[in-house]
Amino acid sequence: MTPDDVGDADVVEADVVEATEPAQLKALAHPLRNRILFTIGQEGATVSQLAKRLSSNKGNIAHHLMVLERAGLARADRTRTVRGGTERYWVRTSRRLRTPSGPQGADHTAALFGAVAQELATAVGEPLMHLRRVRLTRAQAQALSAHLERVIEGLDEAPVGEPTHGVLVSVFERPGRNGGR
């Protein structure tokens, strides 16, 4: 599954949320909600900003933000006055999300890949994307997972104004004997 912080939005409640509660998994089972979480960034965003960035209407965005808030994945933050009205910024409650694998996380996985596909369709330049099937020992797979986790954890956010990039990493064993081969 990330701009720099502005105002109170730099108080991120957690680095990683282990999304295992039914309300969290249900909230994450919709591609637009995943895209909202991608788009909010660490600086936060208003309903109007999200609607523009995601080519959706404000009512739709507001509804999905409420679902994310009830699930504890987003929260209302600071406000600003615009032309006599008040806009509220929304922020994520964590920098990263982890969801369960297998049947419990299947709906989120499908929604996440749908959201990533939508993001890739509008990506600037040529996105790097590889899916490789490779035979690994269990120890090699664990070492690869640990290495990729260190790479992701070690990424420092660039300042506001720099482009935002999506990074999706996965290592998984295919089902069946010998990885289903």
Give the secondary structure arrangement, pairings included:
Layout: E1 14-18, H1 22-27, H2 31-40, E2 45-46, H3 47-53, H4 58-70, E3 74-82, E4 85-92, E5 94-98, H5 106-121, H6 138-153
Parallel strand pairs: 1-5
Antiparallel strand pairs: 2-4, 3-4
Q: Could you explain how this protein is built, in words?
A:
- InterPro entries: ArsR-like_HTH, HTH_ArsR_DNA-bd_dom, HTH_MetalResp_TranReg, WH-like_DNA-bd_sf, WH_DNA-bd_sf.
- Residues 23-118 form the HTH arsR-type domain.
- The protein starts with 13 loop residues before the first strand and ends in a 28-residue tail after the last helix.
- Strand 3 and strand 4 (85-92) form a beta hairpin.
- Helix 2 crosses helix 5 (106-121) and helix 3 (47-53) crosses helix 4 (58-70).
- It is built from 6 helices and 5 strands, in the order βααβααβββαα.
- It is 38% helix and 16% strand.
| CATH topology grouping | Arc Repressor Mutant, subunit A
Name of the top-level CATH class = Mainly Alpha
C-alpha end-to-end distance: 29 Å
Please provide the count of β strands: 5
Give the name of the CATH superfamily: Winged helix-like DNA-binding domain superfamily/Winged helix DNA-binding domain
> Helicity level, as a percent range?
25-40%
CATH architecture, by name, is Orthogonal Bundle
Work out the helix count.
Answer: 6
Estimated share of beta-strand residues = 15-25%
Overall number of structural domains:
1
Pfam family, one: HTH_20
Protein name: HTH arsR-type domain-containing protein
Keywords: DNA-binding, Transcription, Transcription regulation
